[in-house]
Amino acid sequence: MRKYLLLVLLFCLQGFYAQEVEFTAKPSKTTLGINEKLRVEFTMTKDGDNFNPPSFQGFNAAGPSQMISNSWINGKRSFSKTYTYVLTPTARGTFTIGQASIDIDGETYKTIPFKVTVTAAVAGANDPDAPITENAGKGIHVVAEVSKTNPYVNEPITVVYKLYVSQDASVRGTRQMDIPQFNDFWSQDIETDSRSVQQGMYNGENYRYIVLKRVVLYPQKSGRLEVEPLSMELTIDVPTGRRDFFNRPLMTQTTKVMSSGSKYINVKPLPEKGKPIDFSGAVGSFDFKVTPSKTTLSNGESLQLNVEVLGKGNLKLFNLPKPVVPSALEMYDPEHKEKISIPLSGMQGSISDNYAIIPQNKGKYPIKAMTFSYFDLASGKYKTITTDEIMIDVQSVPGTSAGNETTSSSGVNKQPVQTTEQFRFVALDTKLQPINKKPFFGSMLFYILLFVPFLLIPVIMLLKKQKQARDNDVTGNKIRKNNKLAKKYLSEAKKHLGNKEPFYVALEKALHNFLKAKLNIETSEMAKPNIQELLESRGAKPETIDDFIKIMNSCEFARYAPSSGAAMQQDYDNAVSVITKLEKEI
Fold it and tell me: By CB distance 3.0 to 4.6 Å, which of 125, 340, 381, 517 could disulfide with 35?
């Protein structure tokens, strides 16, 4: 009996100690800027083997460093073993740190996954390795220079990101960590030669600098708006404190993430006083023209009416006024054309709508005078340009002649009564004969026509139900729409081969719409780690996923680097190949 009691006691003690085993993951924080670092500690209360860390997707991991604590207090043992990793973010977004595992006494323990949100760069970023790299970054500055801090809505401002390096500092390499997201702005990147080193002044001292990024911004709302920072990972020479045989300081290299910091601008709303009724948001300095290709038409001719705005301002951000024509002139939807260049000073060039107009009747028809209003930045007032009325003289149209048509001054055509044909006598004697000797009533055709509508009723009801189900299938309709858009933009990219910017814009839209169709996600969810995770869950092969991510990266960075026609053709072929593979694998 005592043996049985002893065995029960041992089992209870074993269960008690087993319950005391803990294996936890503890992050130093769950929200950090892209220029910060994160410390993650995996701690166990009993020693184990076969420690397997998570993949740390979205981060560069350094470590692990290991620490063991073993103590006895009042006869009770306290043990802990910790694996520590220092993580550096590689992109913005929300990332999941997965499960780590450890084997303890033949049992496998796993940590609970947790999410970490990486935001834009923050001021006063923490650095767990600060004592090691405290001298790194001295004399090096990433700066955002804003041309104007109090613009009007839709007034262009220029932001130039620069890397300043003093004469005593040395940077061995740079890598852009984050692309600023200009919320509440319309933005356009301006190409720059980042390898061109220039001399300039910073804080009253001579520095070398390179331009990292240039962008033109058009604020889309009033108030205090943030211009997001640019973050760079820099490889910097740091002195070790030792010297070589010739008494020269020995250097080592370290990496450091530096940010330009956020800039804020106060955007003024456009004044309400004096705002014209037809104002559509044009801001700048413009000229307005309405030009017909001809004003006299005959023999079925048509005319082209060109409505054009020229000048400097937010040309891509407003609509042109639409002409009003009489009902006797049939006007078709316009062909929109843009001839716009975007230097650092902002958009300049012209936009136009070209209308095809076809007359229906003979006469003289006025095209009413048109007005275009804009806000002039130079004077700070609204201005309105009014064109002259255009008179269109239609001398003849197909199917009429001068002899049987008269025109009043009001433009209404009057047709005279035709009296060239004489009356004929009515035949009094008629001879009627049946069209068909067999009666229609009771024939096979009669019964077919009688019963076919009834047979079609269930078919019509079935088709109606299918249409209703299809209309109610919001997700399916969205997927079908995105599929069409992906094919459309892929075709558009092919047309723009050799023209870098529209080619990569169309190719990126094709990739995004393909993901929306296949993964049922929105643009806000298109962080690369999230895309990779979703594609893996759908059965896509890792090498195919890597190829897809490479093409997305190529589209994102194409504006910042020169690109040849051969490179564009290769990117297009790779995109078609990868999309085809994913179609089969997903």
Answer: 125
